[in-house]
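Possible regression after last week's pipeline update?

I re-ran a chain I had predicted before the update to compare outputs. Posting the input and the new output here so someone can diff against the archived version. Not blocking, just want to make sure nothing changed silently.
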Amino acid sequence: MRLLGPRGGRRATAPAVVAAVAVASAVAWWTARHGSHIDTAAFRESVHAALRGDSPYFLSTSVPFVYPPPALLVIVLSAVGPNVPVASIIWTVVTLACLARVTWLLVGLAWPTSAHERRVQLTCGLFGVACLMEPSVRALEYGQLGLILLWLTVEGLHGQPRSSPRPLLVGLAAAVKLTPSIVLVGLAAAGRWRSAGWGLIGFIGAWVGAAIVAPAALRDYVRAGWRLASDVNATPDVLNHSLIGVCSAAGLPAWAGIAGAAVTLIAGVALTAALWRSDDELGGLATILITGLLVSPVSWAHHWVACYPALVLLAREARTRRVSAVALITVAVIGMLVQIDEIALPASRILGPGEAWTLTFRAWYVAWGLAFLCWVALRVLPPIRRSEPQPANRDERQPALP
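New output (post-update):
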């Protein structure tokens, strides 16, 4: 329904676009001035090494390259430009463009019947807020690729009939990092075998492509490079926002974190399957990504860009005056804007005697993620269960996205 009319809609849209661009530009400028961009530098050196025919692992960079070889296909743009500062600017622009595209797609999922002007306004507003949140700021400061992987995942699930090869993009993201790979599990559990199959083809294709363009990288990764990620993340850290990370920081035995992650994985995949079988595209996507963040061995703040679909889902439900949705989205937005987890950090980021109580707010990402899954089970799923049965052949349905 057009509340403003064509001209009024356009007049209201222009300031929204200008404001969104201004916020994104300000964040980009701030992160360019104050960010370390250590990951962009490591990506750049790794790509250059691969182009020379060398291995990108065990280089003398400030941080090691710990991703599997298919990541080289994604980070190739970090090698563009004459030096690291120029490459960082290019990488920042690409990252923000991915965030903008993701926001546009998520708004389409949440409010598919909105007029074009209204969709632009919602996209600009949510994009501007997302730019200011801790996960985005950290990703831009370090020059990380989380937002690019999020775009590959959302784009890969957008606009399918189920026989579409778009999930190849999800497979590419899954070949780079654990969290997107759980999306393929969710697709299979929901009975979307064609989409899961295309994703698996993309996963295998990414590894084959990496073996062709960077055989030295594949050789070193298989021999010893795969250990780098576990070595880098082996020390307990209060900023590792996963179930395993929190249990490690609290000094609990390893089996406690693994058991908690296993239970969460089963519950999250089951919820995702139920939502996708009922054609709640946004609900299923948000649930499986939150599940991936919680069960991953390592989930730093910049990895939590994958929670943005959950925030859009909560915004959709909050408009129906659901108090629980309003509470969850309020806590998330305030926590990410204020960066509660980093307030008064201990110098070593490892909890010492008498500091365990600080996990009550440092681990808020994990607590929020678990609360979100409970909310999905109690508030989103029951209305779907009460709705009319859906056609049996999910693979041939049309998507909710326009």
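Follow-up from reviewer: compared with the archived run. The radius of gyration is 21 Å. Marking as no regression found.
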